[in-house]
Known about the structure:
Blueprint: E1 6-10, H1 17-27, E2 31-33, E3 37-38, E4 53-54, H2 57-65, E5 69-75, E6 78-83, H3 84-92, E7 96-100, H4 103-112, E8 117-122, H5 126-136, H6 141-155, E9 163-166, H7 170-186
Parallel strand pairs: 1-7, 1-8, 2-7, 3-4, 8-9
Antiparallel strand pairs: 3-6, 5-6
Helix pairs in contact: 1-7, 5-6
The structure holds guanosine-5'-monophosphate.
Guanosine-5'-monophosphate binds next to strand 5, strand 6 and helix 4.
Amino acid sequence: MKKGLLIVVSGPSGVGKGTICNTLINKNKDIYMSVSATTRKPRNGEIHGKSYYFLSEEDFKQKIKNDEFIEYAKVFNNYYGTLKSVIMEKIEAGKNVLLEIDVQGALQVKEKYKEAVMIFILPPSLEVLKERIIGRGSENDKTLNIRLNEAQNEIDMLHNYNYSVKNADLKTACKQVEAIIIAETCKIKIKKQ
Ligand code: 5GP
């Protein structure tokens, strides 16, 4: 049985990676979007087990001790992580699994799972990214600057990824990510002797 792909999508806050991932999974029923665990409080409309597994810090730390995560990271003061139990079984069963995670977590995945397909979503420019974050209306001057600095730090890690997709136009960006997944599915994998 051919294993599924482990597809990692990262990019700065506000770049639209969540929208790209949701568009992809709504269109492609053969792609499974991993549900992460987090210590962040649920936002309006978020459902436990669907949006995230919302855990207490104590439970999250216990799972770190038990080695239950393929990766985890502290992002904007909360823990986020991908549970091995959520994704490895699906990959072994031939399903493509999509992880939308930050750069720190993505590097851990790459270290542990060399075949991971690493995709980075870029904004058209930092100026456009700034306008998009301001447009969401959720940040003050201080947190806006934190997010923009963080965005630059993340973009500096681009060389760790296999592909970059610029999100200037949502439809084009989705098409490009889809094309990457199709190409990776057709790729001939040579087993090392
Ligand atoms: P939010 O709180 O807005 O849903 O997500 C904040 C950030 O956490 C985003 O950059 C998102 O990609 C990242 N994130 C979500 N789930 C995970 C995860 O399982 N692991 C890691 N490392 N980052 C995650």
